[in-house]
């Protein structure tokens, strides 16, 4: 009775005992919209990284992860020592966004003498915010928009204008750009210039194509099973798990890095070299950086090169490297997916790297031995006949049930190993018994024919006889 009264007074006490539901790997993104087709929504296969309903990959669905999980941040925690991401103290004009997951907001401060104008509240403990206010003439302010997130060295902005003047429209209140990701340790005005220097479709603005593009790129460029052995279902033997561990350790020590955004107007020399950025060419397009103010530099990680922001791309897929995360190998820059494929083969069935010594090579692709199986029923295809449809293997039985064409004459399905004749959408067995004149029964194989109401005729006389 006492407990009931307490709960009535404070209903939130009941929620203390309600733990969040655990979501297993293949339940992530359940129901997410497919970007390729109109399937009911993502229903992830338990070991394939594809939808069971439409066959499209997980990254081809607009998967929105739980609010407390950011794919990019998760991969960085697995591969990069967070202490190495501490922003440089050379300039105090930065916002510390380290280890923060949420939405970044930019808005321009309007300077006005009116008492009701937009005001800026700056904590007295934040010297960086004071310096930021004084050093930037028309600053673009940023913050993390996320409940229950304490922002370090950030400025808090309050807008009393709209509250006190609800009848007046304020242009800045109507449209405030919100980003799902921002580079760390970079002055806000430089971030603004960087975002404007990459294609609009790659800017992770909330509610735009760029937000969805970032999610898709994170899933495609940074497969979580490449970095986390717990998510790699194909690792069964101890020696395979050890190979995966060494693979990840090598990435941490010598391969992975985060591109640094540099304002070359404020840099006198280029990464300990005597040449200035003015004399450096973009590593990707080989053109001069002379007319570019903002560049991406890799001198603090593997590789010592400089790029136009729009040129910082993967060597294989040519996509802009998401969240500036790169993998350096043989003097080339890759996304996580295509770096992994430089070292190990990737199974076409489960999308995981193959660490086993033995695997199957079929249809021009690599497979775990156990994963070269029927795409529909999972029957092993080793030593069995199979058919390929849309680059996916099927056993004969499943192929017959799903894809086999019916003969117009006998109304029976045509096996894939039998010869078939086709005209428009009509199909026949290539036999005298099926491909023949409807009236006189003459075989029409390799002969001219006429078609009437899906029936074959050898001549006008036979067709007229049928019409009578």
TrEMBL record:
Annotated PET domain residues: 160-268
Signal peptide: none
Gene3D superfamilies on file: Cysteine Rich Protein (2.10.110.10)
UniProt keyword annotation of Repeat present: yes
Swiss-Prot/TrEMBL keywords: LIM domain, Metal-binding, Repeat, Zinc
Domain LIM zinc-binding residue range list: 280-344, 345-405
Gene Ontology molecular function terms on file: zinc ion binding
PROSITE patterns to which the protein is assigned, alphabetical: LIM_DOMAIN_1, LIM_DOMAIN_2, PET
Pfam families for the chain: LIM, PET
PANTHER family associated with the record: LIM DOMAIN-CONTAINING PROTEIN, TESTIN
Name of this protein: LIM domain protein
């Amino acid at each position: 009775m006492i407990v009931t009264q307490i709960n009535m007074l404070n209903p939130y006490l009941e929620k203390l005992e309600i733990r969040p539901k655990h979501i297993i790997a293949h339940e992530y993104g359940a129901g997410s919209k497919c970007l390729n087709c109109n399937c009911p929504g993502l229903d992830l296969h338990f070991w394939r990284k594809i939808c069971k309903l439409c066959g499209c990959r997980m990254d081809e669905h607009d998967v929105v992860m739980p609010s407390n999980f950011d794919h990019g941040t998760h991969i960085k925690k697995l591969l990069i020592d967070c202490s190495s991401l501490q922003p440089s103290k050379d300039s105090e004009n930065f916002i510390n966004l380290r280890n923060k997951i949420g939405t970044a907001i930019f808005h321009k401060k309007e300077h006005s003498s009116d008492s009701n104008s937009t005001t800026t509240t700056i904590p007295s403990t934040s010297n960086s915010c004071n310096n930021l206010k004084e050093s930037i003439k028309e600053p673009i302010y940023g913050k993390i928009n996320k409940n229950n997130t304490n922002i370090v060295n950030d400025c808090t902005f309050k807008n009393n204008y709209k509250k006190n003047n609800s009848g007046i429209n304020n242009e800045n209140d109507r449209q405030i750009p919100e980003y799902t990701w921002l580079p760390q340790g970079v002055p806000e005005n430089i971030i603004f210039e960087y975002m404007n220097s990459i294609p609009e479709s790659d800017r992770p603005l909330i509610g735009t194509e760029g937000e969805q593009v970032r999610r898709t790129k994170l899933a495609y460029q940074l497969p979580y099973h490449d970095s986390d052995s717990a998510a790699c279902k194909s690792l069964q033997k101890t020696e395979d798990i050890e190979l995966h561990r060494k693979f990840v350790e090598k990435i941490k020590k010598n391969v992975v890095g985060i591109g640094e955004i540099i304002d070359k107007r404020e840099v006198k020399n280029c990464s300990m070299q005597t040449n200035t950025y003015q004399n450096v060419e973009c590593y990707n397009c080989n053109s001069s950086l002379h007319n570019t103010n903002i560049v991406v530099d890799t001198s603090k990680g593997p590789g010592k090169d400089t790029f136009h922001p729009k040129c910082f791309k993967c060597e294989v897929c040519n996509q802009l490297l998401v969240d500036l995360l790169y993998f350096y190998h043989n003097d080339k820059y890759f996304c996580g997916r295509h770096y992994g494929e430089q070292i190990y083969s990737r199974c076409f069935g489960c999308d995981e790297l193959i660490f086993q010594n033995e695997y199957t090579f079929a249809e021009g692709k690599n497979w775990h031995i156990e994963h070269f199986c029927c795409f529909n029923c999972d029957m092993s295809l080793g030593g069995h006949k199979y058919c390929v449809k849309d680059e996916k293997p099927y056993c004969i039985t499943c192929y017959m049930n799903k894809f086999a064409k019916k003969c117009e004459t006998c109304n029976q399905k045509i096996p894939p190993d039998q010869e078939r004749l086709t005209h428009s959408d009509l199909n026949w067995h290539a036999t005298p018994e099926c491909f023949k004149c409807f009236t006189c029964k003459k075989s029409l194989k390799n002969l001219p024919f006429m078609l009437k109401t899906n029936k074959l005729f050898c001549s006008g006389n036979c067709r007229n006889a049928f019409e009578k």
